[in-house]
Amino acid sequence: MTDRLAALMAHFPVSAHVFQAGALCGIHTLEAADGRGQLHLIRRGPVEVFHRATSLRIEAPSLLLYPRPLSHRFVTDPLAGADMVCAHLIFESGIDNPMAAALPEVVCLPLDAVQGADPVLTLLFEEAFSQRCGGVALVERLFEVVMIQILRQLMESGALAGGLLSGLSHPRLRHALVGMHEAPAHEWTLDELASAAGMSRSVFAASFRETLGTTPGHYLQGWRIALAQQALRRGRALKVISADVGYGSEAALSRAFKAQTGLSPRAWKVRESAG
């Protein structure tokens, strides 16, 4: 089976920075941080968490994922507290990261519901609470592994309704998506994409729009522009980028870029630098 996450993770990686390991007692508020999400691993509760106008009460060992910035407040027993390991998640490209954008605002899963995660979580908790040499670096790498396992679990369980990850969950559409992700410069036709998905042209187009909420052509343009934005952040020349993402000239890329973002590449880069 084609690896549905490989190209996404290669182009738009996620890194973790641990900020809490141990008992969390009483009331604690985490304000939304620019461009950062959080992943909380709760080994022992209970924990009540509030975000916007809703709340969750977590009794069993669970994970709580906020892929995008969102203020939330934890309430635990003021004496016994709750054992938690928490990390900020840095999705490369921030709000433009397609994985972060495709995830629900909040994901809460029992730890034992994430297939294959038990040995990773056992080691993560052991290192987080033991304060051994190199423990923080190891725990941060393990958080990144857990993040991949969460994405895999969400896709394989069919828990996502609509959007990129829902498309990657689809037994046929995912082949077309992986093709676009791995070869963005290819001049994909609707017939080629439908063939990759093993579907007729009309069924493919209808299924794609229904599942991802856009047409294959618009999706491909969005993917190419996301890659162009990533390359601009890294200081690459527009002339080189245009060839890499499937546009024959800087002018063609600039037109598509402005159609997608409302700004020229130059104006977009100035705005990014100012931010």
Task: Report on the architecture of this protein.
The mean pLDDT is 91. The chain contains 12 helices and 9 strands. It has helices spanning 6-11, 98-102, 118-130, 135-157, 164-169, 173-182, 190-197, 201-212, 216-233, 238-244, 250-261, 265-274; strands at residues 14-24, 27-30, 36-44, 47-51, 54-58, 62-66, 72-75, 82-91, 107-110. The longest helix has 23 residues, at 135-157. The two termini are 41 Å apart. The protein has 2 domains: 6-157, Jelly Rolls, CATH 2.60.120.10; 170-274, Orthogonal Bundle (Arc Repressor Mutant, subunit A), CATH 1.10.10.60. Helix content is 47%, strand content 21%. Strands 1-8-3-6-9 form a 5-stranded antiparallel β-sheet, with helices on one face. It has a 4-stranded antiparallel β-sheet with strand order 2-7-4-5, with no helix packed on it. The protein is α+β, with helices and mostly antiparallel strands.
